[in-house]
């Protein structure tokens, strides 16, 4: 989804919530986005973010959206498993699922970018991290929804009619409400078992917490037993 389309969608949401004209809602959103950019650029100097531990809120952010993205991708993969599904319905629903997944991915990236901008990460490093050449491509990720999401994630007061993403950010930070830590644990376990190079790499699961590590090892053994060819006598 492009930045302009994301702005239009956010403006429609605010138009419905606040009861103001569409153009006025769009103008407010663009003003908020410009204010964020000016606040970032007007800092005294650029400096790298500290090389400390990853903030727990950002870890929760990635886990939450990864879970949502995988859920939509799973829906897209299995759409054609429905017996007798017409091609029209397949294309409609598959694209719905994929664009929903893309919305979560863009929002995830934009929220992280907005956070790193506030932490004074240099534009050069930001472009390198995002694998883009121009600052315009970086700015495209920082939508009004991403800023509202970050505000909720970091405990900042919601702007007037900031929309649902502020509330979702708050629930991620507090591991309540929209967040589902148990489902996110299960996803991390499954992905680790599926993509780790174990047992070629005996330390493949050492970065996981102990309960998840035990589950990943058990699941990895099950997956290998179902994919390895049976030995012949």
Kindly describe this structure.
This protein is an all-alpha fold and 233 residues long. Helix content is 68%, strand content 0%. It has ten helices and no strands. Helix 4 (87-118) crosses helix 7 and helix 7 packs parallel to helix 8. The longest helix has 32 residues, at 87-118.
Q: Report the sheet with the most strands, covering strand number, pairing sense and barrel closure.
A: none
Helix content: 55-70%
Work out the number of β strands.
Answer: 0
The multimeric state of the shown protein is single chain
Residue-averaged pLDDT: 85
Strand content: under 5%
Query: What Rg do the Cα atoms give?
Result: 21 Å
Low-pLDDT sequence parts: none
* Large-scale geometry: globular
SSE succession = HHHHHHHHHH
**End-to-end Cα distance:** 56 Å
Number of helices: 10
Structural class: mainly alpha
Keywords:
233 residues; mainly alpha; 68% helix; globular
Question: What's a quick, concise take on this entry?
Answer:
By secondary structure, this protein is mainly alpha-helical. The chain is built from 10 helices and no strands.
């Amino acid at each position: 989804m492009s930045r302009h389309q994301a702005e239009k969608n956010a403006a429609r949401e605010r138009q419905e919530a606040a009861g103001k004209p569409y153009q006025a809602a769009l103008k407010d959103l663009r003003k908020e986005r410009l204010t964020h950019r000016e606040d970032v650029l007007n800092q005294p100097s650029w400096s790298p973010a500290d090389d400390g531990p990853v903030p727990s809120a950002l870890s929760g952010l990635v886990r939450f959206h990864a879970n949502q993205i995988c859920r939509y991708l799973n829906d897209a993969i299995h759409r054609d498993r429905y017996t007798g599904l017409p091609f029209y319905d397949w294309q409609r629903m598959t694209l719905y699922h994929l664009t929903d997944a893309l919305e979560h991915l863009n929002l995830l990236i934009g929220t992280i970018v907005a956070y790193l901008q506030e932490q004074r990460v240099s534009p050069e490093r930001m472009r390198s991290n995002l694998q883009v050449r121009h600052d315009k491509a970086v700015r495209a990720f920082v939508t009004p929804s991403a800023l509202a999401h970050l505000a909720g994630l970091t405990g900042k007061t919601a702007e007037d009619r900031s929309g649902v993403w502020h509330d979702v950010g708050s629930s991620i930070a507090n591991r309540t409400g929209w967040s589902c830590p148990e489902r996110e644990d299960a996803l991390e376990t499954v992905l680790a078992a599926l993509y780790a190079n174990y047992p070629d790499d005996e330390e493949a699961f050492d970065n996981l917490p102990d309960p998840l590590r035990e589950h990943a090892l058990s699941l990895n053994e099950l997956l290998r037993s179902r994919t390895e060819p049976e030995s012949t006598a």
